[in-house]
Write a structure and sequence with these properties.
single chain; alpha/beta; D-Maltodextrin-Binding Protein, domain 2; 2 domains; three-stranded parallel β-sheet; 38% helix
């Protein structure tokens, strides 16, 4: 009977989409192990490598508070935190394979992604837009009919862009890239007419870049992108610990200072974002 049970567990574990966490991240940390946090190096202002070669950004600040909150919850004197640089292409796989315990960047929470990883409470709400050169008269998505559009491969933005173009019968040539830097370079060189990504990251990309070139964004967003921290699927105790910290941040108003630090130059939070934090300020 015992052998049959072992074989059944092994068979279930081999089925794609079913993930098991034998030991909670909290158990490992409680025993002195590190908390491993992944971040994207070029997703400012949410996640990037600063001049001091250390991770910085809105999502990174949230994860630092998560680490501190977990230390408090476990009543530990210290928790070792290891930061692991990731890419847009490998971030979810890093969580799925336990290379990192939590991923902090601009990952959009979707049902299909939840088949392989879990997610925290929503940390930000953005929208998909397209960056183009000023003077090109490309103000709406329909204006990109017959044009070339760059977008990062495998992202929710790529899927949303293709869907939006298809729904409006707009025929554009999609050029996939691997990073925001590559997409901007193609646009700068005139090899594409627009670069699609999340609006806030596009604004930050231009504001942090030393250039005399002028750019503009669409007057509309073609998608809604709810960001969340990616977590190991099935580790419910760890997810609860993370959400406890985030809910406290929203409930206490600490999120306002974090927002001002990294996003204050872009204006106050939208009504949708403010409502998102309010609804998620769950009590104990």
């Amino acid at each position: 009977m015992r052998s049959a049970a072992i074989l059944l567990f092994a068979a279930l574990a081999a089925i794609p989409g079913i993930a098991y966490t034998q030991t909670s991240v909290l158990d490992r940390v409680r025993q002195g192990g590190p908390l491993t946090i992944g971040f994207i190096e070029d997703a400012a202002p949410f996640s990037f490598t600063g001049a001091d070669r250390q991770p910085q950004g809105f999502a990174v600040d949230l994860c630092r508070k998560v680490a501190a909150g977990i230390r408090t919850q476990l009543k530990l004197e210290k928790v070792e935190v290891r930061w692991v640089p990731l890419t847009v292409g490998n971030r979810l796989e890093a969580v799925r394979t336990n290379k990192v315990d939590i991923e902090c960047s601009t990952t959009t929470w979707t049902l299909s992604r939840q088949d392989t990883v879990d997610f925290s409470l929503i940390t930000f709400v953005d929208g998909g837009s397209v960056l183009s050169k000023s003077g090109s008269r490309l103000a709406r998505l329909v204006d990109f009919g017959g044009k070339r559009l760059a977008v990062i491969a495998g992202t929710t933005t790529e899927r949303a862009l293709r869907d939006a173009l298809g729904e409006r019968s707009i025929k554009s040539d999609i050029v996939t890239v691997t990073s925001r830097t590559e997409g901007l370079k193609l646009l700068d060189e005139g090899r594409v007419d627009g670069f699609a990504a999340d609006r806030t990251t596009l604004i930050a990309l231009i504001s942090m870049r030393r250039t005399t070139a002028a750019f503009s964004l669409l007057d509309e967003d073609f998608s809604v992108e709810p960001y969340a921290l990616s977590l190991p699927r099935g580790d419910y105790a760890f997810r609860l610990a993370v959400n406890r910290v985030l809910a406290r941040i929203y409930r206490s108003g600490d999120i306002v200072e974090i927002y001002k630090r990294w996003l204050g130059d872009f204006g106050p939070p939208s009504l949708l974002l403010s409502a998102t934090y309010f609804v998620q300020s769950l009590g104990e």
